[in-house]
Write a structure and sequence with these properties.
Length: 67
């Protein structure tokens, strides 16, 4: 069963989401920089893990050609 999406149609929801995220980042960096910079090592570790998962998921899906 397919449910109709409230967010389908225009890109206004994407613009609103980007604006909210930008305001949250600005608030975090301007009012609480210690919290923002304390999270950076964890974000880097999670980014490495996510990149590893995404790269290993694609392996074996393309034909191997000998040149």
């Amino acid at each position: 069963m397919a449910f109709p999406s409230v967010f389908a149609g225009s890109g206004i929801w994407l613009i609103i989401l980007i604006a909210i995220v930008a305001m949250a980042v600005y608030y975090l960096l301007s009012r609480h920089p210690a919290y923002a910079f304390a999270v950076i090592p964890y974000v880097l570790i999670l980014a490495c893990f996510a990149m590893h998962l995404l790269e290993t998921r694609r392996q074996g899906k393309h034909p191997h050609r000998r040149t």
